[in-house]
Amino acid sequence: MPNRAFAPRSSLDTLAASLAASISQLAIADAPLNLEQMRRFYRSLSLSTADLSPFRHFDDAQYRRNRIHIDEHFELLLLCWRPGQRSQIHNHKGSLCGVKVLEGVATETVFVQNPSGQVCPRETREMAAGSLVINGDLDIHQVANLHPDGTDLVTLHLYSPPLKKMELFGLEPQQQRVFHGADSVEYQI
């Protein structure tokens, strides 16, 4: 069996003890996480955005994905959003996705796909700091920071298994395409 020890790019000393312990518990798993394991992970966390400062990086052009940890069963990222930034409309093809809002207010729009292939908004909700949402692999959504200038958004994303590909959608069926995840720490969707 391969060594599944927690080995982020920066040392354990830079991580909050709560986060390091929670990741170490997840690393014991020998299969992708289920919904209840993901909920337990988020409930076990007791940290602030300051605890994640080694991974807190913004990009003024587009939101930024900052990888904290990846192994064969899960991937943990800190996403940093400036006002006005949003993801494309997408699903998490093959991965369960948990999103916890740490700072700011996230706006999530959930879409449904009709028989002709078009996606239509079904509901939009605002998620304040502390909110948690877990999406299935085929749930279609878009996340955005729609708040005024100077109001950043920071979200903690857990994918299990790691996000390898997803479908990206436009409002017309011919705009649908597949995105293949990159090994880069900072890839965008």
TrEMBL record:
<dbReference type="GO" id="GO:0016702">
    <property type="term" value="F:oxidoreductase activity, acting on single donors with incorporation of molecular oxygen, incorporation of two atoms of oxygen"/>
</dbReference>
<feature type="binding site">
    <location>
        <position position="141"/>
    </location>
    <ligand>
        <name>Fe cation</name>
    </ligand>
</feature>
<keyword id="KW-0223">Dioxygenase</keyword>
<keyword id="KW-0883">Thioether bond</keyword>
<dbReference type="InterPro" id="IPR010300">
    <property type="entry name" value="CDO_1"/>
</dbReference>
<dbReference type="GO" id="GO:0008198">
    <property type="term" value="F:ferrous iron binding"/>
</dbReference>
<comment type="similarity">
    <text>Belongs to the cysteine dioxygenase family.</text>
</comment>
<protein>
    <recommendedName>
        <fullName>Cysteine dioxygenase</fullName>
    </recommendedName>
</protein>
<dbReference type="InterPro" id="IPR011051">
    <property type="entry name" value="RmlC_Cupin_sf"/>
</dbReference>
<feature type="binding site">
    <location>
        <position position="92"/>
    </location>
    <ligand>
        <name>Fe cation</name>
    </ligand>
</feature>
<keyword id="KW-0479">Metal-binding</keyword>
<keyword id="KW-0408">Iron</keyword>
<keyword id="KW-0560">Oxidoreductase</keyword>
<dbReference type="InterPro" id="IPR014710">
    <property type="entry name" value="RmlC-like_jellyroll"/>
</dbReference>
<feature type="binding site">
    <location>
        <position position="90"/>
    </location>
    <ligand>
        <name>Fe cation</name>
    </ligand>
</feature>
<feature type="cross-link" description="3'-(S-cysteinyl)-tyrosine (Cys-Tyr)">
    <location>
        <begin position="97"/>
        <end position="159"/>
    </location>
</feature>
<dbReference type="Pfam" id="PF05995">
    <property type="entry name" value="CDO_I"/>
</dbReference>
